[in-house]
């Protein structure tokens, strides 16, 4: 790359896009990389402030910004995503279908720490729709050392930074617990809430029963639901520390591995997560899921439907960002709630 006076650049090849900004009208390239400069181009270049201009000089040790941006894209891309057009050293990644976005944060941090390049993504563990922007990449200078890009590529040699996991339309069982509902003293208002949330993901409720506060019956109900094909079991009620709240014991007695009883999330502190035979989630849902707009259940459900195993460490990390502010107008997921994991 060589810098020369614009008036002397006739016949030379541009090595980068030239952008023209007219407030409220346009922000776009008036000349693209590879354009051969003509005499007629000189006034236009001067009008956008280019009294000197870089022209292309091939250097075997350097990469043009667009070539290097392609490398950043390759480091990020995975199944179910495609690139935007490369422009001024920038490439964006677009979702080809809906799903759960996963981000390898350590790799992302290492690449961004190399300097002269950047990758910005959405938060990981969030749902995206077809056509959503997943990430943007950019090379900062006009040219960059090949050796630096090789170091960046080495960070991702065992896999890309992004993953888009499809959501599965699971068969769901709902076990409503509590003597007050079982004996008809109050109406079951919990199940309709869950059914509506499951509809957002086209899941099918194949099993629903109401149980007294009898932990043995609830245990049998969980196992019966799984025998009937349930791929996700949701138990409502009986999740607090009152002596007659028996749902946690019932779930434990199924033989499921308890990941956590409790989560640093409000609403949703009394959340229980377990895995039966390491593949079927059995979940205990606290009462707040019935009346609060967004809770721990909204954070966990997409991951459960994507077969993305949730660990105790990840649940613990939800403490930062785990406080829902109950805004008058809910903007979730475009807010900080649940962005800690």
Short account of what is shown:
With 341 residues, the protein is of the alpha+beta class. Helices cover 26% and strands 28% of the residues.
Description of the molecule:
It is built from eleven helices and 19 strands. Strand 18 and strand 19 form a beta hairpin. By secondary structure, it is of the alpha+beta class. A six-stranded mixed sheet has the order 15-14-16-19-18-17, with helices on both faces. It has helices spanning 41-47, 65-76, 105-112, 146-155, 179-182, 190-199, 215-227, 247-252, 288-291, 296-305, 312-317; strands at residues 2-5, 18-22, 26-31, 52-55, 62-64, 81-83, 90-95, 99-103, 117-121, 126-128, 133-139, 143-145, 162-165, 171-177, 204-211, 232-236, 257-261, 272-276, 280-285. It folds into three domains: 2-55, Molybdopterin biosynthesis moea protein, domain 2 (Alpha-Beta Complex), CATH 3.90.105; 62-165, Alpha-Beta Complex (Aldehyde Oxidoreductase, domain 3), CATH 3.90.1170.30; 171-317, 3-Layer(aba) Sandwich (Molybdenum Cofactor Biosythetic Enzyme, Chain A), CATH 3.40.980.10.
